[in-house]
Structure formats: structure tokens, C-alpha cells
């Protein structure tokens, strides 16, 4: 059985989840079911597993289409700039169906495909089972990947047009939709865009052999982190992206009346001190072993996200035996129990600060936290669920 996963990028939260699903299928054997799993990305940033879609294009095609795609993206960004949220069109410049992997596959597994897969033309494929793991609100939202505060009048027509197109396609095409949380599944079903297609929840996976508890003191010594102060961890692709919630975390840190260390990883500029918190910045995180060490430096992961479908960081922390403090955002509460963290009782800096203090006062059991990850998010568990979904061809 030949499976091709399609995702626009090899970086970012959705790409990370998609690559791990591919890894889960590569590394396991499922009851005699032979799965040949490949990962096709429009832009492959030096990932050894992924295949760059553009490698099959000639130099002229690659340059011309990449430029055309960039101009489309800039036009959209300018038009929807005030929304402070990504908007995608259904159409793209790429003819994905012509790629050899697509032609030779049995199952097409879509993930985050904006600006990559031309949705209006893509689904007219014969003898292909289609699975689509949705990682945000696109495409059933009509364009925006996450909800925005206000839809301007000049955006409304485009959104409604795209919703109509999507509803028609989904009513005529058999697709197995997968969601990483019950939260997103319910919102998608309430949109009435998915037709009568199968919908199920399969949580995001994590490599529990890579993400694991390590000696905390040894990790802190290695990275020159104070061993006498509580250590918090915050990571995000972009610190300054409003829905990542760093502004509220910064306010919460100023309310915590004790010395702490906040270690951070991602893109963006941060001060060296906030209140009594020392900030240690480790840059954009591309080294998996370093990331595991940073989790193990921490007493607590803080995820102040204001909009999220699931959370790779909470799952990674779980696998490392580290508790989390979060807001009751999207699908994140589905990942938190009394065993592995605290959900703040409201979305405010004060509530976040109080939850951080409370979590730091508790004695969490790393072994029990790790067990949650093994039982619910391991490659073996998640891989079997996808293999079961693939099997009835």
C-alpha cells in the first residue's frame, strides 16, 4: 500500500505533526499490512525524509511558478493584513496531480496544503483513497486558518464563494477526515461543509523514545541554567504572533513574586529580564536533541496560546515527563489532566501567574506524565490508528 503525505512545508506545527505521522508509519509493522509511506512537500527545508515537489520541475518551471506563487501570496497578505491571521485561497499555481508520487500512490493523505494543492481540480482522481488530517480551520472556514475578530465587508464575498466551492467538492468526494482534537472535529461538523464524509479524531503523535525524561541537573549544567530557581519553558515559531500569547505570559511573569528563569526557543526578539524572570533565549529550534534537553531543564512548560487546535509542545513536554500550564484554548484541555498540569480558570495574565505558582508548588510524577504520552501519543498507538483507517480500500 503506497501512501503519500502532502504538506506545504517541512517546518511549523502542522508540518511537525504530519512528519511524525509519516514516521509512525515508517517505523512500525501493523498486522502484516505493508505500508510504503512517503512525504511530499512543496518547500523542503533540508528534511531528510521529505521529497521536494519542485524537484520534478525544470529550472524554468520552478522559477516561474515560485515567483507567481510569491506574488499571489503578497497580494493576499496585503488584502487581509488587518486580520492579523493567515488567509488562503483554494486555487494554487502548482499541478500536484502530475507528480510521479501522486500518480503511483494508493492513498493520498493531505495535511496543511495551502498554496500547494489546487483544491478545485485536485479531487478528480480515480481509484485513490483520500485522507485529510486538518490542522486548523482551513478550508471549511472559507479562507482564514483561525477565527478573526471581525470579517470586513470586502472579504465576505470571497469567503462565502470559497465555502460554496468547498461544500460542493466535499459533497461529491469521499474523504476520510481526521482531526487532532474533538474540539476541531465538532467545529468542522457544525460548519456543514464536510458532507456525509467520515470524521474521526486521532491525536498528534510524538516519538516517545526521543522525547523522554533526562537528568534535570545535568541538563541545566550543560546549558548554564541556574539550578536553584524554578525554570519555565516557552517555545513558539513566532513569539510576536498575537495568538501565541506571549504578551500575556510577559504580564504574568511580572506578577510572579519570585525569581524564575524562562527559557525560550523560536523566532523573535525578547528582553533579557521581565519582572523577576531571567530570560534565556536559544533561538530557532532545529536540533531535536537540544529541544529534548531544554524540556528537561524545565520544571514547567507554559503554553499561553489564545487559539490552538492541539499542542505539539504539550505533547512533547508530556513525553519528557514535564507538566504544563495552559489556557482553556481550543483542543488543549483534551491533553491536560491533574496528572500533567493545570488549565488556568480564565484567559488573563493574573490567572496564568496564579496557575504557574500553583503548578510550581505541586510534586508531579514524571513517570506518570510520561505514561500518558506512551498510552495516547506514541508512534505505535497513532500509527496503528492510521493503518486501520487506510486498510479498507
Fold and architecture overview:
Strands 3-2-1-4-5-6-7 form a 7-stranded parallel beta sheet. A 7-stranded mixed beta sheet has the order 10-11-9-8-12-13-14, sandwiched between helices. The longest helix has 21 residues, at 59-79. The protein is globular and about 60 Å long. 42% of the residues are buried. It folds into 2 domains: 2-205 and 378-390, Rossmann fold (3-Layer(aba) Sandwich); 216-376, 3-Layer(aba) Sandwich (Rossmann fold). The model has no long low-confidence stretch (mean pLDDT 93). It has 13 helices and 14 strands. It has 393 residues and is of the alpha/beta class. Strand 6 (176-179), helix 6 and strand 7 form a beta-alpha-beta unit. It is 36% helix and 17% strand.
Helices and strands in order, then pairings?
Elements: E1 2-9, H1 13-26, E2 36-43, E3 51-52, H2 59-79, H3 100-103, E4 107-110, H4 119-122, E5 129-133, H5 153-172, E6 176-179, H6 182-190, E7 199-201, H7 216-222, E8 231-238, H8 246-255, E9 260-267, E10 273-274, E11 277-281, H9 288-297, E12 300-303, H10 312-319, E13 324-326, E14 341-343, H11 349-361, H12 366-376, H13 379-390
Parallel strand pairs: 1-2, 1-4, 2-3, 4-5, 5-6, 6-7, 8-9, 8-12, 9-11, 12-13, 13-14
Antiparallel strand pairs: 10-11
